[in-house]
Amino acid sequence: MKKKQIKLSDVIVPKYQKNFNKNISHQINKGGRGRGATSTKSARIAFKAIEKEGYSFVVLRKHSNKIRRSVLKELKRALRRLGLLEGTDYKAIMQPFEIEILSNGNKIYFTGIDSIDDIKGMVDDKNPIKEVWIEEITEFFSKSVEEGEELLNNIIATFSRGNDKDFVMHYTFNPPPNPNHPANIWLKKMLKRKDVLLEEGTYLDVPEEWLGKAFIKEAEALKQADELMYRNVYLGESVGTRGRIYKIKDDYIIEKKRQYYDFYKMAIDIGESKSATTFSLIGFYREGMKQKAHFLEEYYHLNSKAAQLEEKNFDNYADDFIKFYKKCVNRYSRKPVEIRIDHDVMFAKALKKKFQENKLDFSIVRKARKLHINDRIKGVKLLLAFDQFKFHKDCNITIQAFKDALWNEKKAAKGVDERLDDLTTNIDSLDCCEYAIETEFSNMIKKGEM
Prior knowledge:
By secondary structure, the chain is of the alpha/beta class. It has helices at residues 8-11, 37-51, 71-81, 145-160, 182-190, 208-211, 213-225, 227-233, 314-332, 345-357, 373-385, 396-404, 409-413, 427-437, 441-444; strands spanning 26-31, 56-61, 90-94, 97-101, 107-112, 129-135, 168-173, 196-201, 253-254, 263-269, 277-287, 290-301, 338-341, 365-367, 389-392. It is built from 15 helices and 15 strands. α12 crosses α14 (427-437).
């Protein structure tokens, strides 16, 4: 294969060019969305995989189901930018994920690491692993600093074996909003070492033509709608997680419903003695290039208020949902494409029986995905800020639930971002809304991963 004449200025964000070839042992890049960190790290690994002899590389995500659409995609893009063609200059294998440079046999391995066992046996006997890139380091610190550090130390010990020099660890992440988050504490500890290089950046450091006008427009829109979230998402600042989660503005609430929605989704959050049972209906439609949604209908019942309300069991709630379902179908002249339901097996059985009695199609009832609660919160906040999600004014119980939602300040002080769940606020309506919309997050938010 011919050597390619590569100009770094064509593929690397100017701010990162001076450190591109440095071999400092630990290299950390932190900052906001769109800063060019993943494209820079993938370009470095791709470049070295082409130029060096007898090298191997490893790219890690915490969860393997995120590899194909993130780091693998970025490495392929980097190789293309450097002039290589898949199938001619390199080959990519999907199971397990790896890339091989055909001219020199260098390999780039990709893996998730839900446990340390996932990387045992990955050491390349032929070519030592010279560089390891961990994307989204925050994912490794979901519980504590100590657990995350133990996992990272095992990774380093596994892959540094057989290297006399020039072994490099790369880390990239968008800082969590909580300054006390374990990932932020880990960073502070790392910066006390002499073998650490820290790079910080934002989209403001990237040539505008690389990002595109649409990206800049979205960033500025978020800045106007929710400055704190803008500072975290786009500037990479840890702005804190205290007080109210949402700021529900008047323009997030609509007076009139549309005459036509492309499709509808429903959700059920079934409660027990202390939590409420809630139903929701959301209508989705496209406006220009954006998919948008309206929260249209709600149901709420709490058994602990039995003095004012009739106490209900699973059969009663199943009956109520059938009534809610029929009312919505008649009102909007269309069936929902799916109904997301939480985990309660007994209620699901009761509901299935009612569907069969009413000759309705139970196949559209599916378990809620239940994304991590903070991912659901971030998704809803982005949709609200980007004018893609609104509530109808009559859904006042759900609207109030969003207005009342709070961060758990005691947990925040310990570095844990957690929505307050002490029965003083209505999180059941929040959950139900999130279940109905969570399968559409990636379609509605332009950035495929939040």
